[in-house]
Amino acid sequence: MDAPLISCIVPVYNGERYIGEALHSILEQTYHPTEIIVADDGSTDGTAKVAEAFGNRVKYVHQTNQGYPEAKNLGLNEARGEFIAFLDADDLWHPVKLERQMARFAEPAPIDLCFTRFKNFWMPELAEEERFYQRQPLCQPQSAWSISTLLTRRAVFDRFGDFHDGTRGIENMTWFLRAAGQGAVIEVLSDILMDRRFNVESFTRRGKAVLFDNFLPILKEWKDYQRRKGNG
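Request: output the structure for the sequence above.
Response:
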């Protein structure tokens, strides 16, 4: 029996500096077959040139700038695989990432969403910040749900919807919570299989004001989830 195809979607906006490394980390996967889809959200830098340099190993699709939820949906619309994975354009997969996750899907106990643990790393220009966090949790292996570690079946999006109604900027978490609220079986593997890059543009380090603005929508999603589960 042929191995299932995995569609690897890379949403990107102005990722010229990093996306080549991300694409190489997909191409170096020990699992095959895969297709790679770069979903460009209206980049104005050299992102397209970098992606197109990979030739027919990468499918490049483009839209006017509409935001990352729409870029992920653009990739989903192009995907042909039975399974779907996402990788942010500045993050990196370990070579056995997809192989380990597909092995889990082959086990008898069913799951819907499979995540892995990951580690953060800082760009050289942020060396001082990295030293500051060296002995803090941010430098330790992370077990949080991250879109860059997700592997799931394409059919899951038919059950739980896509990213159109997610809260912009935190559409990943609102989608995860929506899926959990509708009964998705979720598992985080203990393997550390992704490196998340912190750079000067990273959303995760843009400051407390932005994070506070995003807290209320997350809280609403969580309360709605608890209510659906009968705990609120």
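The chain is about 35% helix and 20% strand.
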